[in-house]
């Protein structure tokens, strides 16, 4: 079968698309990559929180999918909005890579040893508040762009350190640059997995991409995405969640914070792995009762 994969043009996005492409070709399919420039790629000097969130990295690709200009799309799962356009679905969630953030510093100093007032680059509010809670004396400044662009700016001396997702750094072959894996940081929802998005009515493509679907990773994704969906959260509020499975039990810990990390509401839930979405929703309601509702109200003007 001839298949067209929609992808962004960044090196990481192309790595991800080619990962899927090569496996499909081994299955005997003819595969073409369709490069699509998204709104998120065009606007690089403004924080995502101010221009619409991570959904800007998938909007134009989803439009091409709905217009049948492509047959499937490959995204970083953490960039996929909680509510998909009508007619689209996630056909597969790939096996999760290490989901944590990493710190890369120019002098190979861990977070705890960076000099006071050192400049740390990240565009993520989630990362910003967790840095502030651990090192309130550091300067956290906006840094957007692709993995290689951010590391280049670090090497040019514009930042003392940058924080990135382990998965992206590894996929770019830059693991040797990692100074510290921040396992005490709660990562972004879905960080580390790829999502293959398809049309709901395309049963042929759904069957083909099912080989990429990793059961445990999908359960964890469903748990974390249910948590975020219940909070109706976006890039305007620092929110993180991380789930894992032990035996038949799924665990999830998550947080909601104000922009300064002063009101930091966190918690953990566990339950049957087959009820992953329910467990994620339950944690969201726990945090809302503990004060997350007020944080969300201050930002959005309403309570979930």
Concise synopsis of the structure shown:
This protein is α/β, with parallel strands linked by helices and 304 residues long.
Strand-and-helix sequence, N→C?
A: EHEHHHEEEEHEHEHEEHHEEEH
Shape: globular
Total DSSP E strands? 13
The average pLDDT value, as a whole number, equals 93
Looking across the biggest beta sheet, what order are the strands in?
Answer: 2-1-3-10-4
Please tally the helical runs, counting DSSP H or I stretches of 4 or more residues.
Answer: 10
Structural class: alpha/beta
Low-confidence stretches: none
Alpha-carbon Rg, integer: 19 Å
Largest sheet properties: 5 strands, mixed
DSSP helix fraction: 25-40%
Strand content: 15-25%
Distance between the termini: 44 Å
Provide the fold topology.
Layout: E1 2-7, H1 11-26, E2 30-35, H2 39-42, H3 48-51, H4 59-66, E3 72-76, E4 88-93, E5 101-105, E6 119-121, H5 125-134, E7 139-141, H6 147-155, E8 161-165, H7 166-171, E9 180-182, E10 194-199, H8 203-209, H9 215-231, E11 239-246, E12 249-257, E13 264-272, H10 276-300
Helix pairs in contact: 9-10
Structural write-up:
By secondary structure, this protein is an alpha/beta fold. 35% of the residues lie in helices and 24% in strands. The chain contains ten helices and 13 strands. Strand 6 (119-121), helix 5 and strand 7 (139-141) form a beta-alpha-beta unit. Helix 9 (215-231) packs parallel to helix 10 (276-300). The radius of gyration is 19 Å and the shape is globular. The model has no long low-confidence stretch (mean pLDDT 93).
